[in-house]
Write a structure and sequence with these properties.
The chain is built from ten helices and twelve strands. It has 275 residues and is α/β, with parallel strands linked by helices. It folds into two domains: 5-77, Rossmann fold (3-Layer(aba) Sandwich), CATH 3.40.50.800; 84-272, 3-Layer(aba) Sandwich (Rossmann fold), CATH 3.40.50. The strands form two sheets. Strands 8-7-6-9-10-12-11 form a seven-stranded mixed sheet, with helices on both faces. Strands 2-1-3-4-5 form a five-stranded mixed sheet, covered by helices on one side. Helix 8 (179-185) runs parallel beside helix 10. The two termini are 36 Å apart. The model has no long low-confidence stretch (mean pLDDT 92). It binds S-adenosylmethionine. S-adenosylmethionine binds at residues 117-118, 120-124, 138-141, 144, 178-180, 197-199, 220, 223, 229.
Length: 275
C-alpha cells in the first residue's frame, strides 16, 4: 500500500523505543528531531522539510503520535479520546437517544455488539463504546491503525483514575485488517450490527474543521471499493448493516436502504438481513 510518507520524527531521546517500534511497523525511517519542538512554526517546517520531502510525516512527542501535514498547510492530527471536544460529545451528545445509537440498535437495556469495519480515527467507535456497546474496530491503513493504537494506549494510561473512560476503552478492540477479508474469514455470530463509514470526498475549501478530512483524503486516496464493502457486509449473517453518509451523498448501493435516519449533516442508511 502506498502510504505517502517516509519518516517518523521523535522529539526526546526517551521516546526512541516507542518511535522505533512504530517506525518499524510501517517501514518508515526513524529520525530524532530537535530536543524540544521549536515554538516557531517556520523553523519547525524547515526542520521537518530537512528530514522528509514528502507532504506528510509522523511526529511522536510527549503528547503522542501525530500525523503532520507539511504542505499545502501545516496541520497535525492525533487520536485523542480525552480531548475537550470528545468529552463534550460524550457528555452532551444526546446519549442513547442520539442518531448513531438508534441507527445501530441501541435501546433500553440493549447494547449491541458492533463491528466497525471502517474505524478511521475511532470517534464513532468511541461514542458507541461510551454508551455500552462492545465495538470491534477494523482499520486497513497501517498509518491510521498506528494513530489509533497510540490513542488507545494513551487513553488506557489516563483511565487509571477515570472509571468511565476505563470502561469505555475496555469495550474497544482494534484489528489491523481489510474488512472484505475479515468478513470472509471470521465468525460473525456474536456481532449484532456492522457499521460502515467510508470516506466521502469533501468539497474543497470547506471550513478549517474539515482540514482533518482533507488530510485523510490525501493519505488514503480514492477509496473506490465502498459499494463492494456494503455488498459484502450485507452478504454476512449479521442482522443489521448501517452506513454513515453525508446527508446529501448518494447511497452506496442500488438496493434501497430498509430505513433511513437523517440528521443535519449526516444520514444513516440501514439494511436489515432477515436471514
Ligand atoms: C471516514 S474514515 C472513518 C471515520 C470513523 N468513523 C471515525 O469516527 O473516526 C474511513 C476509514 O475506513 C478505512 N477503510 C475503508 N475501507 C476499509 C476496508 N475495506 N477495510 C478496513 N478499513 C477500511 C479507511 O482506511 C479510513 O481510515
Amino acid at each position: 500500500m502506498d502510504i505517502k510518507l517516509d519518516s517518523l520524527v521523535y522529539h526526546g531521546a526517551h521516546l526512541l523505543e516507542s518511535a522505533q517500534d512504530y517506525a518499524d511497523e510501517v517501514s518508515l525511517n526513524c529520525v530524532e528531531g530537535t530536543a524540544l519542538e521549536s515554538r516557531q512554526k517556520k523553523e519547525l517546517i524547515r526542520h521537518y522539510e530537512s528530514i522528509s520531502k514528502q507532504a506528510l510525516i509522523l511526529v511522536l512527542n510527549q503528547e503522542g503520535l501525530h500525523l503532520q501535514m507539511l504542505r499545502p498547510s501545516f496541520y497535525r492530527i492525533k487520536v485523542d479520546f480525552c480531548d475537550p471536544q470528545m468529552r463534550y460529545r460524550i457528555s452532551k451528545g444526546g446519549g442513547r437517544g442520539q442518531m448513531i445509537a438508534k441507527a445501530l440498535g441501541v435501546k433500553n437495556n440493549l447494547n449491541p455488539n458492533v463491528l466497525d469495519a471502517t474505524a478511521g480515527l475511532g470517534k464513532d467507535a468511541f461514542v458507541l463504546a461510551s454508551l455500552g456497546c462492545s465495538v470491534k474496530m477494523l482499520e486497513r491503513n497501517p498509518v491510521i491503525h498506528l494513530l489509533l493504537r497510540d490513542g488507545i494506549k494513551r487513553a488506557q494510561s489516563s483511565a487509571a483514575n477515570d472509571e468511565l473512560l476505563k470502561q469505555t476503552i475496555d469495550r474497544l478492540t482494534l484489528l489491523k485488517s481489510e474488512a472484505l477479508e475479515y468478513f470472509g474469514q471470521s465468525n460473525l455470530r456474536s456481532i449484532d450490527a456492522i457499521f460502515l463509514d467510508p470516506m466521502f470526498p469533501e468539497p474543497e475549501k470547506r471550513a478549517q474543521v474539515k482540514k482533518e478530512m482533507q488530510m485523510l483524503q490525501y493519505l488514503l486516496g480514492d477509496q473506490l471499493d465502498a459499494s463492494e464493502l456494503l455488498t459484502a457486509a450485507c452478504s454476512t449473517e449479521v442482522a443489521r448493516v448501517v452506513v454513515k453518509r453525508p446527508r446529501i451523498a448518494p447511497s452506496l448501493s442500488d438496493k434501497a436502504p430498509d430505513t433511513i435516519m437523517e440528521g443535519k449533516s449526516n444520514r444513516y442508511d440501514i439494511y436489515f438481513n432477515l436471514g
